[in-house]
What we know:
- By secondary structure, the first copy, chain A, is of the alpha/beta class.
- The first copy, chain A, has a single domain (15-181, 189-211), classed as Ribokinase (UDP-N-acetylmuramoyl-L-alanine:D-glutamate ligase), CATH 3.40.1190.20.
- The first copy, chain A, has helices at residues 3-16, 29-39, 52-57, 71-87, 102-114, 124-130, 149-160, 195-207, 213-235, 240-251, 256-262; strands spanning 19-23, 42-45, 61-65, 91-94, 119-122, 137-138, 141-142, 163-166, 171-174, 179-182, 265-266.
- In chain A, the strands form two sheets. A nine-stranded mixed beta sheet of chain A has the order 2-1-3-4-5-8-9-10-11, with helices on both faces. In chain A, strands 6-7 form a two-stranded antiparallel ribbon.
- In chain A, helix 5 (102-114) links the parallel strand 4 (91-94) and strand 5.
- The longest helix of chain A is centred in the C-terminal third of the chain and has 23 residues, at 213-235.
- The A-C interface holds A 25-31, 67-71, 97, 100-104, 138-141, 190-194, 238-242, 244-245 and C 19, 21, 26, 29-30, 33-34, 37-38, 42-51, 54-55, 58-59, 72, 244-250, 252-253.
- Chains A, B, C: ATP binds at residues 121, 167.
- Chains A, B, C: Its EC number is 2.7.1.50.
Amino acid sequence: MLKNTLFETLQKVRDAKPLVxxxxxxxxxxxxxxxxxxxxxxxxxxxxxxxxxxxxxxASSLVLNIGTLNPQTVxxxxxxxxxxxxxxxxxxxxxxxxxxxxxxTETAQRIMRELKISIIRGNAAEIANVVGEKWEIKGVxxxxxxxxxxxxxxxxxxxxxxxxxxxxxxDVITNGRTTYVVANGHPLxxxxxxxxxxxxxxxxxxxxxxxxxxxxxxxxVSIYGIAAEKAAELTVESGPGSFQIEFLNQLSKVASxxxxxxxxxxK
Amino acid sequence: MLKNTLFETLQKVRDAKPLVxxxxxxxxxxxxxxxxxxxxxxxxxxxxxxxxxxxxxxASSLVLNIGTLNPQTVxxxxxxxxxxxxxxxxxxxxxxxxxxxxxxTETAQRIMRELKISIIRGNAAEIANVVGEKWEIKGVxxxxxxxxxxxxxxxxxxxxxxxxxxxxxxDVITNGRTTYVVANGHPLxxxxxxxxxxxxxxxxxxxxxxxxxxxxxxxxVSIYGIAAEKAAELTVESGPGSFQIEFLNQLSKVASxxxxxxxxxxK
Amino acid sequence: MLKNTLFETLQKVRDAKPLVxxxxxxxxxxxxxxxxxxxxxxxxxxxxxxxxxxxxxxASSLVLNIGTLNPQTVxxxxxxxxxxxxxxxxxxxxxxxxxxxxxxTETAQRIMRELKISIIRGNAAEIANVVGEKWEIKGVxxxxxxxxxxxxxxxxxxxxxxxxxxxxxxDVITNGRTTYVVANGHPLxxxxxxxxxxxxxxxxxxxxxxxxxxxxxxxxVSIYGIAAEKAAELTVESGPGSFQIEFLNQLSKVASxxxxxxxxxxK
Lengths: 267, 267, 267
């Protein structure tokens, strides 16, 4: 993947301002909306059964996130997902905490079964639990990560028949045939809540303007990590509060030169 | 409207710390509460059917916002609104995303029909959809804005029999007879989620201390815009993350001199 | 209480990263999660009846907060609390706004009656209302505070049979027999929403690593206040927006020397 194509994809987001419909958890709504706005996309959140499908139909992409799931929002996710599937709108899924409780694991598996998901993004434990592999999880954070992440991602892509993005120290993006490893990002991301959730929504924004979903995923993951690296350079001495704010600033400013300088993508 | 009366109205908010009851969406709760605290008001949020009316009765004003509406919160809005109406407590309404889905449009129209709303605030598309005028909307953002906003606001004020505040590049405040155009504010407000919602709650805070609701509305809109301009001066190079934080700082600091220098209000 | 034991307790949090399960209000979810992450703990939020108990069972502590209560989240609190009680996991309760509406007061009293609460934290008005003493409340903020807070705390600890933490200008921590007064903290805490809620969750984090719950409570309250004082030193000129962010920074950095220099604890 050529670095200059990453910036072109970002520029499409900034120009088209795709409407990204998020049905997400109550912890990250504000940060997700502000992150999407900073990137140049247009966020909307509508989680009532009465309107979830209608909102999905007018969106460029749909992002589902089970971080604080309940039966009503799960119903809305299914309705919105079906509407998106009918219209060919990409659906991105974040199985937050799959494996932590049976309800999460079962709901994540149900969503994968009942909807056509284009891309699933999670940490290694979450993805493993969705596909029924054994993997330790601690709350909503990944546990041991000494398994082979790339192997897990490829297995998951084959079983789930979608693009799999596993984030961690390095990020793996695969459709089961082609696999990319992105080494951008910064450990401070783990000290701010919702940075995984926002990445899922950022992938959603990129799929709203780029039909090649592998291209969209790799561009989103790399650019997101670059913004984090740049934010960390300015705030690592200050702490996670300042990092969170500077990260939003940097998301709004990633330039072509930054991508050339920072992007670390291996096939 | 004399500029010195604006500061007096702000000073009343700071002195009386009016209790503003917000039934609002899950994206903006934190930002709204922090914005009201920065301004000097006292925010409270209670959205259960079991207590919405009780909380409204002890508040100085009630703010209703349908950004992430569902049947339960709509029931709570109606109950709280009826209680506020009985006690003569001002009710301010923000029809977020009216026009984006039938559920939003119908709920917004139902709230206007069943409650006595003192002030409605939205973008041009939202207000147009509440009164049944054709206007494009994209998610929860206004679409084309080449219609005549002032005409739309006056028509809406007559049809809805309340004060109408339409915000955009310039902000229009009208009761159908007297119309003000406020030219404060900054484009960075559109890069932070919930700045429209917070403005609605800030108008609510001002109505909690000022019985002349046109005075309250114009003061709130202008002072809010001034805080944004001052925040933008300090953060436009940094980005939307820093702007959001500095905006809260500036809301807590607007001074008499700032109003004299920045206020732009035309009748 | 020796100052060096406070830092040791903090260090245990940073080392063990206890999983703190929060069933809390929609205003403070993000700030609470980020505050716990900054401190070094691992936050999780799960408020559905379908999983609340399962999540509580794997947590190091459970924090219940009725800031935006509704029948479903209250059911989840009871289920999670019962599961925690069975396993001997500490349950910390924040009766936000008790006294403001009958529903809050009754729910707070129900939670105290049906669950074994280890620690309750609130302002004077909230605690007074939970134990049925007369005390004025304004929304979710404490009203008059000219009563004797220490007496109220001791009475409450005896009636409720748990540790009581009353925060205000000074903070009182008592189990009814031993009473500590902590004079750390800063008035800017009252200009940021959710600082009381986050403190309750921080107490939760400390109880996840320290079996002596008085030690855990005093350490949490003092260290929290120290972070606020240090943040205020850097941001008091800027305003509440900057303070909120710097407070997160400082929570991540409290050092042994800070505690020696700032801690103000009287028995």
